[in-house]
Design goal:
The protein has 440 residues and is mainly alpha-helical. It has 2 domains: 10-227, MFS general substrate transporter like domains (Growth Hormone, Chain: A); 231-440, Growth Hormone, Chain: A (Up-down Bundle), CATH 1.20.1250.20. It is built from 20 helices and no strands. It has helices at residues 2-40, 42-46, 52-83, 86-104, 110-113, 116-145, 152-160, 162-180, 183-196, 198-210, 216-223, 231-238, 240-249, 251-271, 276-304, 306-328, 333-351, 354-359, 367-397, 400-420. The longest helix has 39 residues, at 2-40. The radius of gyration is 21 Å and the shape is globular.
Length: 440
Amino acid sequence: MTESVATGVSNQSRRVVLASFVGTTIEYYDFFIYGLAAALVFRTQFFPEFSDLSGTLAAMGTFAVGFIARPIGGVVMGHFGDRVGRKTMLVIALMTMGVSTTLVGLLPTYESIGIWAPILLVTLRLIQGLGVGGEWAGAVLMAVENAPANKRAFYGSFPQLGLPAGVFLSQLVFLLLTSAMSPTAFAAWGWRIAFLMSAILIAVGLVIRLRLEESSEFERARSSEEIVKTPLLEVFRSYRAQIIVGSLGSVAAGAFGYLISLFLVQYSVSEMHTSTTTMLWVLTGVSALWVFMTLLGGYFADRVGRRPTFILGAVLAVVWAFPLFALVDTGIVAMIFIGLAGLALANSLMSGPLPALVTGMFPVSCRYSGSVVCYTFGSILGGGITPIVATALFGRYGSSVAISLLIIVIALVSAVPIVVARSKVFRQDGERVTDFVSPE
């Protein structure tokens, strides 16, 4: 009897981490293929009546539209995730996210249906953003709440693999497509393959998620009538300190992910004159290594503590900020790889324990809503504002020193609240999350 129960728990846990990984991988795969397509082909396919600059801005504007919808989707899915269940929201998020992404690959162009082409593109991007808004928190909760007590950080690190895995897949797909066909063929129809391929991930993820059981912690909360009527209001009323700490703690993960996958690639190409193809291959290799380093961050956090691991990552980011550009500025491929891998390691030590840290700040009754709020604010500050700030700083000063200082500031913004917060902020899940002693 005991063996069968253990086997059932083990099978459920394996399905949960796989489902979490697939969902967040789709999220970031779509993020990066959309960004690449917007930069390379959307201007000619959907905005041909615009000038080169206006068309490019319009194409990238559709990319930004998804971020507007994310908070709305997050709030709605967080509410129902805390009242109805995590599994239901995960299935809805995957379908919303996946179907809209796939349909982008089937859209007629401006030449075929005129103004309706960009209108439909924006509509699909909005729908996709709604699904993404609730994906991360739901995936993290299913992973953490189904994990053994001594492996919550490790299980929680699997959804974090979506960023490096999404970067890896998107870069690999675009490299293969652009290598296998002419630029004309790629611009005309080849780009669609990248979007249509997401249907494979959707099918795999849907099969896995439909076989999941509801989170055991949520079921216990529901059976004991701990479910609150308005979980989002409960979060803002009773857990304001957790919102601040969790939101700022989430900034670095998105910011460093952007710097690695986009800014440093653009910097190497434009300033060091490294070829685009070479940098895409470098990023593909770093992303593969990044996956394993993120798991290492979660594994390490379960053994020495979530906060110490997070703080170690922040310290590494501060120390690495200037050597990073010293390596990249050599223009030598191996040195560039080491530079990016070092920042990816710092990111992994911070993002690996982050899901267990954030979810542990809130009780089961409002955990989905609380996690969504932290992730949303962190994404806006990290992934949304960092690109603008980094571009503006480099444009103003023309020096990598400004970006190194930005990395240091980001690391401190995320780490200082984690250091100074009282221990009780992190213990809403009833687990001892760290052996780091913070001031009471």
